Each structure stands twice: as C-alpha cells, then as structure tokens.
C-alpha cells in the first residue's frame, strides 16, 4: 500500500474519531450529561417458569450477567433482562436446563453511544444440588452462591468476572481478562486459567489446585490442598497467606512469590536476578522458580 494511501486512511480515521467525540460531547451536554437519554437500545423483562425436572444446567450467553438464586417454591424460574431485539430462550431437554441469550445488535447499535444498561439472566433454582453446571459467557459477570453445589462446574468467559462460592467435585474456570474468585469452596480438583485477570482463592480446600495465567496476580488465602498446588504466571505475582499443600510448584517470570505456609517444606528455589528468602525446614517438596522476581516465604 502506498504511503499516500496510508496517510489518507489515517486522516479519515482520525477525522471520524474527532467527529464522534464532538458529537458525543454535544449530545451529553444537551441531555445534562445523562447517558441514558442518548442510548438507542431499549431493554425488556421476560420470565419463564420451568416445571420439567432437570439436574444439569447449560448456559450460553454473549453479554449477560448471570446470577443464581434459591427458588422459594418447587419450580425453576428464569428471568431475562435483555435488549428488545435480543434472541433468548430456555427449555429442558435430556434432563438438562438450556439457557441462551444472543447479542442481536446491529452494527449501528455497536457504534452508538454508551449505555448504562446491562443484560441480565437470573436463575431461580429449587434444589441445592445439581449434577453439572456449564457456562459460556463472553462479557458478562457470573455469580454462584454457596447455597448450591455440583458434581462439576465448567465456566468459560472472556472479560466478565467470575465469583464462585459453590462447592463441586471438579471446578474448571477459563477466564481471560476478568477477575476470578473462589470463596469457601470444597472440591476434589480445581483448574483455573486466566490471561490478564487476577485470581483470588479464600477458604478453599481441594486435593489438587492448578492455576495458570499471564499477567494476573494469584492470591491464596487460607487455602489447603491435600495433594498439590501448581501455579504459573508470566508477570503476575503469587501470594500465599496461611495456605499449604503436600507439594507446591510455583513459577513466575517477572512476578514475585511471597507469603506464609502452615508446615515445613523441602525448598527448591531459583531466581535469575531476584532475592530469595526461605526458611530451612523439611517436609513435602516446595519448588519455586522466578526469573527476575523475589521469593520470600515464611512458615507459620
């Protein structure tokens, strides 16, 4: 592509940005800086009562916040708060409750002014235990309270936050840029993957805990793994507070590893340029590697 063409395209792009910014400023000023007055997308409520039995839940959503609530009667209710032109549905098939909400916005909707509204799905469940929970959600937040438990939880999201207080035999969460938190959870196996989001575990007990990520931090507070804790980060820090495992394998590139363990360990540590401060003790293996990060561990 010729330099003259590139310059023209850049000028056009810059002009469009300037025009859009000026238009937004003027529209906000005219409407007393109220975003709701200049949005083009309207939202509506819709509710579905589910009488068929199910013990599995499968949810596929683009932009909805998802919340689970204990129902007050024997039936399940699914409440949708969605854009007026959104496609959404819920039904039971093969003992599975299926819930979907697709983003049906046009190109104009996507480039229109910012909206303060958020699409939501609220699921009122009559039982406390279900066999499986599977969620695929692009940008919405997900909240699962401790009043529920599952055999398996499998969650995949891009930019939404995930807050799980429900126990399960296996928990798998793949969250790219959103924050992930587990609180007061019991599990056999926990696998957590992130890119830039932070991950926090508080009062968690499991046999195995695996956590991998890029730039997000990992905080383990009152976490106990009867078998192993494995954690890997690129630039994120790994911090342990009153946590322990029979064996630990912790690795970062430019991040630091610090905190307190509950029992003595046989430490195997390495760092290219970072400082290392670990106590002399014996016990299960604790292997910690960093490139430029510091390593500081104490035994409570």
Q: What can be said about this structure in brief?
A:
The chain is mainly beta. Helices cover 11% and strands 55% of the residues.
Beta-strand residue percentage: over 45%
- Number of DSSP helical runs: 2
Give the N-to-C terminal Cα separation: 64 Å
> Would you report the number of β strands?
21
Tertiary shape? flat
What is the residue-averaged pLDDT? 89
Cα-based radius of gyration, to the nearest Å: 24 Å
SSE order: HEEEEEEHEEEEEEEEEEEEEEE
**In percent, how helical is the residue content?**
10-25%
Note poorly predicted spans.
106-113
Output the structural class.
mainly beta
State the major sheet: 21 strands, mixed
Keywords for this entry:
single chain; 300 residues; mainly beta; 21-stranded mixed β-sheet; 2 helices; flat
Layout of helices and strands:
Blueprint: H1 3-30, E1 43-50, E2 56-61, E3 65-70, E4 76-83, E5 87-93, E6 96-102, H2 107-111, E7 120-125, E8 129-137, E9 142-144, E10 149-157, E11 162-164, E12 167-175, E13 180-194, E14 199-212, E15 218-232, E16 238-251, E17 257-261, E18 265-271, E19 276-277, E20 284-290, E21 295-299
Parallel strand pairs: 2-6, 2-8, 3-7, 3-9, 8-10, 9-11, 10-12, 11-13, 12-13, 13-14, 14-15, 15-16, 16-17, 16-20, 17-21, 18-20, 19-21
Antiparallel strand pairs: 1-4, 4-7, 5-6
């Amino acid at each position: 592509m010729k330099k003259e063409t590139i310059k023209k395209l850049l000028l056009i792009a810059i002009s469009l940005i300037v025009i859009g910014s000026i238009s937004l400023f003027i529209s906000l000023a005219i409407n007393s800086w109220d975003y709701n007055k200049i949005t083009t997308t309207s939202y509506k409520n819709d509710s579905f009562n589910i009488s068929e039995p199910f013990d599995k839940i499968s949810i596929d959503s683009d932009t909805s916040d998802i919340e689970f609530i204990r129902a007050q009667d024997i039936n399940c209710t699914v409440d949708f708060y969605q854009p007026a032109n959104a496609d959404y549905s819920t039904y039971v098939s093969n003992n599975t409750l299926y819930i979907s909400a697709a983003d049906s916005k046009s190109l104009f909707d996507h480039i229109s002014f910012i909206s303060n509204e958020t699409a939501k799905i609220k699921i009122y469940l009559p039982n406390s235990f279900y066999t499986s929970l599977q969620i695929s959600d692009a940008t919405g937040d997900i909240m699962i309270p401790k009043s529920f438990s599952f055999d398996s939880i499998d969650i995949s999201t891009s930019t939404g936050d995930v807050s799980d207080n429900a126990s399960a035999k296996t928990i798998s969460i793949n969250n790219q840029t959103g924050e992930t938190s587990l609180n007061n959870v019991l599990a056999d196996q926990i696998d957590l993957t992130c890119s830039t989001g932070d991950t926090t575990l508080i009062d968690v007990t499991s046999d195995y805990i695996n956590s991998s990520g890029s730039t997000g931090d990992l905080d383990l507070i009152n976490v106990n793994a009867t078998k192993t804790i494995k954690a890997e980060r690129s630039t994120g820090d790994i911090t342990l507070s009153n946590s322990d495992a029979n064996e630990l394998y912790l690795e970062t590139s430019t991040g630091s590893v610090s905190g307190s363990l509950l029992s003595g360990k046989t430490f195997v540590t390495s760092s290219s340029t970072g400082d290392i401060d670990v106590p002399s003790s014996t016990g299960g293996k604790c292997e910690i590697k960093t490139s430029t990060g510091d390593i500081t561990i104490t035994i409570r």
